[in-house]
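Schema walkthrough. Field components (list of strings):
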Amino acid sequence: MKRALLLVLLLGALWAAGAILPRVVNPYFFRILMLCGINVILAVSLNLINGFTGQFSIGHAGFMAVGAYTAAMISLHGGQSSSQAMIAAGVPPLFAHGAALVLAVIAGGTAAAIAGYMVGLPSLRLRGDYLAIVTLGFGEIIRVLLTNIDAVGASRGLPGIPGWTSFFWVGTWAAAVIALSVNLAHSTFGRALFAIRDDEVAAEALGVNTSAYKVMAFVIGAFFAGVAGGLYAHYDSYLNPNSFTFIRSIEVIAMVVLGGMGSVSGSIVAAIVLTVLPEVLRPVKDYRMVIYALMLIILMITRPQGLLGTREISLRRLFSRKRPKLAA
Amino acid sequence: MAEFLQQLVNGVTLGIVYALIALGYTMVYGILRLINFAHGDVYMLGAFTGYYAAGMIGATQHPSVGKAFLVLAIAMGACGLLGVAIERLAYKPVRKSPPLAALITAIGVSLFLENGGRILFGADPKFFPQIIPARNIPLGAGVTISNQQVIILGVSLTLMFALRFIVMYTRVGKAMRAVSYNHTAAALMGISVDRIITFTFLIGSMLAAAAGVLVALQNPKIEPYMGILPGLKAFVAAVLGGIGNIPGAVIGGLVMGIAEVMVVGYGTPTYRDAIAFVLLIFILLVRPAGILGKHAAEKV
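Field assembly_structure (string):
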């Protein structure tokens, strides 16, 4: 009961914010806000693979690309016309577009999840840096394929995707992946993932089916990366294979590591910091990326465990008078 | 047949350059377990130092073989020192940190060098001077090799044999091998681990700089982002051969170079950047530790 109320309140707040914000905030800030939301989804989903399970993946841009292109193609070939048919039949445009977006995004997420399954399988044989380089290779292969498939615009890119992504949808999906991660962390499933991260052999000896959990982590992480891709496609209305180079994957990894491996709130904070930072540095023009790089190095030297380490920011702990004792 | 042999010659030339870069990756990985993402950018800086050195010593107007080697030596020296500086300033402070923190630092260094290079050299591509005028040498059966390719092969092989000599037959090489097994044990045997790591960065960066100058001889267009893709492919080559393994890096580089040239020659050129990774995934599925890599037994 309490949870349902919370959910309704959250959705209502997101809806209201989505309605008010574009009117009071200038479009540039609003764009950064939307990109923050999409990056939060990416970082939190990668945190499931890298932070929770300890599987080092550098292919998140690849999953994002799969989701983005699948969602975009569905909207262009069917989604757009059916939403127009719904509007003609008297459904309010907001609902028609929302329904079409949700379908496209879920399809994109599913396609990415299938890709995640296929990448997750070799992860059973490979460890550490070898796995990293296979996921990196997967991302690059996807990008080269997209550059060569004429049906999705090849290197010209894919224009004309309906711009349905609104603040409400980005917020809802971000809330979904955050809620999933937090609940996962406190579930049997999440404990199994942590066990695999901390010591795979010991986890296996205790009866954790490491293979199944590792692949599942990949599938869930990839699904939300695909969702982020789908939202991004319907926000910018244009996709280009060059948006999904391995540099993009590395940006997401930087968010997870900077936030503190395994910390959900850390990933959120770092995703926002690393999205806003390059924008804040815009006035220094050419020196922007140099300063960004230097700050990355200095942050890693001064706080190698990330901004939050493995700790979490918890509202309950902030508000309760008696601080609960932390287990050592 | 003639065409195939010609492709093979070109493939080996490309592959030997990948191998030179891969050696730096594999040595640093062998000793620090760190993927040195900035290595491809050292290769880029090698080409740029060569460019400016050639202008300064007048190799552009009056090319000669001696001046070409001087350019190569200056680039290698400068980048070797740069490699040492990177290690001391950026990597040493994170050596005791979790591996991923070190990796992000490496990525930071890479971004720093690329964007710093863009400010320093300008975003427009520069054209490396013809310090050795191109000339084709027929090899018979319709196959030709350019004198630049001969230089690339000759210099690369010399450097590789020099590296092998250093690693296998000198005191410092023995120390490098010891450190790559176990830092603590090596330190207990009186080896200065810090100095060995610095030395590794010095020679790794020198090899990358040499690769930069050699490639620029053949493809004169140089720009600050030129190191990203060759760096990535060279790293893949190192993994392919078995990372941390020096002969493995050479074999991996050659396999990658030949495969890439064959795909361009007989298949679709637009897939040239994907072939490296397809090959990698197939080889890793069969041999999870690379071609020459040894699968370490896991200790419980």
